[in-house]
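Hi U.,

Before I forget, here's the chain from the pilot set. I'm dumping it here mostly so it's searchable later in email.
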Amino acid sequence: MSVHQSTNIKRITTHVLQEMKNRGEKISMLTAYDFSMAGILDAAGIDIILVGDSASNVMAGHETTLPITLDQMIYHASSVVRAVKRAFVVVDIPFGSYQGNSSEALRSTIRIMKEAGAHAVKVEGGAEIKESVVRILSAGVPVMGHLGLTPQSIYKFGTYTVRAKEEDEAEKLISDAKVLEECGCFAIVLEKIPAELAKRVAENVSIPVIGIGAGPHVDGQVLVVHDMLGITQEFKPRFLRQYADLRGIMTEAVEGYIKDVKSKDFPSEKESY
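Structure:
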């Protein structure tokens, strides 16, 4: 059996993702925020595209994910969805659009699904957001959970260091993962936690577990595409593998263009009408 057999599937669904976990096929997931990038990822065979609130950082230049609004997330998500033919598109519900109010969570979700055409939403937190998760699921919308380092709570944590290194926090994380599974979440993202803990979670829940800085023993991996492609250079955590240096390639291309314009080499006679 080829580990790449999922690339032959016409459309990835929650059912397909569950089957992938059941047979031990790893799930690939990357972020995208615009039509062009999403089209490239989809054509390459990515399983899940996450329209992450990380757009706040990499697209808008904010220090945290907190400033991005629901309207902005819908804009990015609708751009991505229009490019995708195969991948499963998950959209982050931004900070302040679901915490503490299940009715608000449902309203935000309905806007994302109707206006962007998303396939699922993602929320950060465990037992404390159970009511919102259940409310969203009651409307028939798939929900992906997110535990460990949850960037929307960065001011609570005060640091981006590894989470759940102490046993009490680790036990709460496992408990929260089970809560999310029992609620009906189709998958969980684990961010920046010890690899052995992530392994325990993946073995203790039946739904797919996707890691980012959570080691190799989970059911799949996710990275921010701008980090993975080397477009952003300032962010280089241990868990990041950079697969290209697009910043260098793009800089060289722009410098070449400037040089040709300044020297009057561009446009040439063949490039003129």
